[in-house]
Amino acid sequence: MTEVTGVTAAAPVTAVGSSATARLLAELADRIDAPDVVLAMSRGGVRTVHTGGSAEPGPVARERLHYELGSASKPFAGLLLARLVAQGRVRYEDRAADLLAPGLPVHPAVRRITLRHLLTHTSGLPGLPADFYPQAVPRWSTDPYGNYPADRVVRAFLRARPRHRPGTRWHYSNFAVSVLGHTLAAATGTPWEVLLHQQVLAPLGLEATLLRPGPDGTDATGHRRDGTPLPALDTGGFTAAGALRSSPLDLLTFLEAHAGGASGSPTDPTLAAALTEVTRPVLRRGWRHAHTHTLTWFQHPTPYGPVLFHAGATLGQQAFLGFRPGTGLAVVATATRRVHRADTFVATAYGLLTDTP
Questions:
Q1: Which residues lie closer than 8 Å to 10 by C-beta, 6 or more apart?
Q2: Does residue 305 contact residue 327 with C-beta atoms inside 8 Å?
Q3: Which residue, 28, 134, 206, 342, is the most exposed by fewest CB within 10 angstroms?
Q4: Rounded distance, CA 289 to CA 286, Å?
């Protein structure tokens, strides 16, 4: 059930929700400066969605547009890996180089990198390949990834020299998660887009979640800090790390499956097992090991129990996904302006997740 507030051009989804929650979302949305803003909350499957922003609404309601997720795509990659493991098709400890290029000589540290290392940012790989920057810098504000295709990502991995021994340091890496995507495609003999659709998107009913722009008029338009519109992002060979586009309603469905929403647990045992697996803490890092992570989510304690979340940003859009395991509480936020130093987007969405009783 969904209550939609704010101005939308399409007919709202009809349902009942908490008017107090609707007022809260409207108040918080006013703190976010962007042409399009969506704040959405689900409590046990009862949804409340607020849409707003400084731009005039278009023919498609904001909550039904496809927003670029950037790094908030990574939880989808994590769930896919967890399901393939549950199906017995791969193992977390499988070595990526053996699956990508069996028998090819590689650096000993590269040979030790496992699927788990790639997903949990403990592979020792840098955030992006060293040779990425010369071709990206001239197009940094418009198209930094599009000229770096999948085969180049794989070659960069196979000739890499990791900075640290795999499994010993945490370093956030779009490079590593992208390699994971190509490795799973190679291991299963299935293109990444098909694999993700078969294993995650279709089983969860995520029809508005895509790996490329949708039909004309269905995608949210990103903006620079000064409000200038931007073209859709091309992630090149970094698909698994940041290529997804999705609607806030689809994202609520994705999170409800993790948090225990109205639809309950999936009937497929491997999907149910994967959803459980990705909520389990697997590592700690930082000063006094204060930062906890699952396979793919950041985890923080709150007075109401642990929360799991991931944010993402592209050249002109932002997304935040978060939920409280076992409670049915989920929060989605999207905005169509590039992140900046004084931006309140992530803090607002995070506070909605962590401060809600």
A1: 59, 60, 61, 64
A2: yes
A3: 342
A4: 5
| Partners of 246 in beta bridges | 67, 209
In the chain, where does DSSP find H-type helix? Answer: 19-29, 74-86, 96-100, 108-111, 115-119, 132-136, 150-158, 174-188, 192-196, 239-242, 248-259, 269-277, 345-354
Cβ proximity of 16 and 45 under 8 Å: no
Contact between 175 and 126 under an 8 Å Cβ cutoff? The reply is yes
Alpha-carbon radius of gyration of the chain: 20
CB atoms within 10 A of CB 130: 12
DSSP state of 72: G
Q: Of 102, 232, 118, 210, which is closest to residue 171 (Cα–Cα)?
A: 118
pLDDT tens per residue, range 137-194: 999 989 999 999 999 999 999 999 998 999 999 999 999 999 999 999 999 999 999 9
